[in-house]
Amino acid sequence: GDSGESSTVNCSYETKQYPALFWYVQYLGEGPQLLLRAQRDNKKGSNKGFEATYNTETTSFHLEKALVQESDSAVYYCALSDTVTETAGGAENKL
What we know:
Structural class: mainly beta
Strand content: 35-45%
Helix content: under 10%
Largest sheet: 4 strands, antiparallel
Strand order of the largest sheet: 1-6-5-4
CATH topology: Immunoglobulin-like
CATH architecture: Sandwich
Number of strands: 8
CATH class: Mainly Beta
Number of domains: 1
Order of helices and strands: EEEEEEEE
């Protein structure tokens, strides 16, 4: 969207565990890099104006940013990891 808008990229997960949750960002021509993470319920991860809150009640980890810049245009990946499976998950969105 235009500069100055707020934006949310949704992420929901399904698991019986309490996984660690991650958001990765991949800018054009680059590899994915870790944006933020949260390990426990109600914990908030934040970085560079982005934030996501670990919500076990709604099993969600939505990525939010109050003021979206043109430079935030990228592919965003939501991922989870727990002790049972090595890595899993992945939602793909463009801001």
